[in-house]
Design a protein that fits this description.
Layout (H helix, E strand, L loop, with lengths): L6 E11 L39 H13 L3 E2 L2 E2 L2 E4 L9 E4 L6 E8 L2 E12 L3 E4 L6 E4 L6 E7 L6 H18 L11 E10 L9 E6 L2 H20 L7 E6 L4 E7 L9 E2 L6 E2 L2 H8 L6 H12 L3 H9 L1 H20 L4 H24 L13 H12 L5 H14 L3 H8 L7 H14 L1 H8 L4 H13 L6 H15 L1
Parallel strand pairs: 12-13
Antiparallel strand pairs: 1-10, 1-11, 2-6, 3-16, 4-5, 4-15, 6-7, 7-10, 8-9, 11-12, 13-14
Helix pairs in contact: 2-3, 5-6, 6-7, 7-8, 7-9, 12-14, 12-15, 13-14, 14-15
Length: 493
């Protein structure tokens, strides 16, 4: 991308479906995946006359929890407001939201070295869903989603690029998952990103703001922001004015497109909802929620670096894959217990062990999972058995080739590794004389490699070792095989 002469000003609005059993103001089931249209509805979420909303306290607690985790000031006094607009998917003719007294304000989230300020986090109800017919000129409405509790987060315009917007959304998703506030699955619409972008030559005189709605993947967030920056830049360089509007994203063409003119806050005629009283929160109430907050991704990164000395990629893998990270720690703990029992000095060997365990989980187990999510209760290998498996590698009892066979069998059947080795006859050949006889056969059959070695090509040794391991199906100790090969070849000279 060419250097941008105009300064972009970018802010995010992110909607997140909260993980609750019921909707925001009624007892209907909170299930946005329900396939039966208009199944999870009632007179309350449909806005029938004479019905009254009752706030979902669990949803409110989850938003406060998110606010605490995101360094926000939690309001001691808050209220609900009516956001008035007319759209077919809005059964009441208004949306219950929050305007001037949100639950959380003035927070921030660090992404790398950058601090992105958060203006507010509030709670509201979701709208229904329009289903547009491809066959005829009409649309159908499914109200299952109407009334589902939403958390809306609004950043300050601190973001500078599509990459930063993506990083913010990715880190926010991680935090929400750690808090168990939301599954935040973007593919399922549980987390939806909207971007506000303007361009100007200086930040004192900001340009016209354009909003891009309903971005449903991190990749799309980055692409949409970068495209819109370039689009607005081209308009300004032609001497034309950017139109204030709402735009969508076209996946196939990878462009933004105009949807409608952008509304301002006053267009919604906000006023306090007369059916819902103000909410008051004590310090004790907020502190109890604070105590429920687990170790968050940023702290986990720091701890994993200090405790296990893993590289950044490995740490990030275990932070993103939270359950696998917890499993890793259990395996490490089991292995350390064995080391203590064997009176092996942990401090001398720990870096080697920590990296060995990490490598097998990141590469081999990830490969065996074939893209499926790691869920420990469904995982057949216990931390104890995995630690035993690592112990065998550490003690050179099995080669890397045998290790792969054993691990796959453990993965499929959950057996103890020593039982697998016994059942399949995979135990290591320890008898040097037996290995020597095999090596002699390898030397006889591979005269070219022997000649290459004599000419000074040291890589020929590795080939001969490989042939020995192939014949023994990985059961020969590679170091022992190497020593014997070198001895016999020197004798030939």
């Amino acid at each position: 991308m060419k250097e941008i002469s105009y300064k972009p000003t970018i802010g995010l609005e992110i909607h997140v479906e909260l993980k609750t059993k019921s909707k925001m103001f009624c007892p209907c089931k909170n299930d946005s995946t329900e396939k039966r249209a208009n199944f999870n509805i009632c007179p309350i979420c449909m806005g029938h006359p004479g019905t009254l909303p009752v706030p979902n306290e669990e949803a409110i607690k989850k938003v406060i929890k998110a606010g605490i985790a995101l360094n926000c000031k939690i309001s001691k006094e808050s209220k609900f407001d009516r956001k008035n607009y007319f759209y077919p998917d809005l059964p009441k003719g208004y949306q219950i939201s929050q305007y001037d007294m949100p639950l959380c304000q003035n927070g921030f989230l660090n992404i790398g070295e950058r601090k992105i300020k958060i203006r507010r986090i509030h709670i509201e109800e979701d709208t229904g869903r329009l289903l547009h017919s491809e066959k005829g000129d009409y649309s159908l409405i499914d109200f299952n989603r109407a009334g589902i509790p939403l958390m809306e987060l609004v950043t300050e315009p601190d973001i500078k690029s599509g990459k930063e917007a993506r990083k913010f959304a990715e880190e926010l998703q991680l935090i929400l998952k750690y808090l168990d506030v939301s599954n935040a699955d973007m593919e399922k619409g549980e987390m939806r990103v909207e971007v506000n972008i303007s361009l100007s030559k200086d930040l004192k005189n900001l340009g016209t703001k354009v909003e891009i709605k309903n971005l449903n993947s991190f990749k799309v967030v980055e692409k949409a922001v970068d495209f819109e920056i370039e689009r607005q830049k081209e308009i300004l360089e032609r001497g034309e004015k950017v139109v204030q509007e709402t735009r969508g994203w076209h996946d196939k063409k990878e462009i933004t497109f105009s949807q409608r003119e952008k509304e301002e806050a006053h267009d919604y005629r906000y006023f306090p909802d007369p059916d819902l009283p103000k909410m008051y929160f004590t310090d004790d109430y907020i502190n109890k929620i604070k105590q429920e907050i687990p170790e968050l991704p940023s702290l986990k990164r720091e701890r994993f670096k200090k405790q296990f000395n893993l590289d950044e990629n490995a740490i990030e893998f275990f932070v993103i894959n939270k359950d696998l990270g917890e499993y890793y720690e259990k395996v490490v703990s089991e292995f350390e217990e064995w080391m203590k029992a064997e009176k092996i000095e942990i401090e001398k060997e720990k870096n080697k062990i920590y990296k060995l365990i990490a490598n097998y989980l990141i590469s081999d187990i990830k490969g065996l999972l074939k893209g499926k999510e790691f869920i420990e209760k469904d995982f057949k290998i216990t931390p104890e058995n995995f630690a035993e498996f690592i112990k065998m590698i550490y003690k050179n009892e099995i080669t890397s080739k045998i290790a792969k066979i054993v691990l796959e069998e453990m993965f499929l059947k959950g057996k103890d590794p020593s039982n697998i080795i016994e059942e399949k006859g995979l135990s290591q050949i320890k008898n040097a004389n037996e290995i020597e006889e095999i090596v002699k056969e390898v030397i006889l059959k591979n005269k070219k490699a022997v000649e290459d070695f004599k000419k000074g090509k040291k890589e020929a040794i590795q080939f001969l070792v490989g042939q020995t391991l192939s014949i023994t199906k990985g059961r020969a100790n590679p170091e022992t095989a190497r020593e014997i090969i070198l001895k016999l070849l020197k004798e030939e000279k």
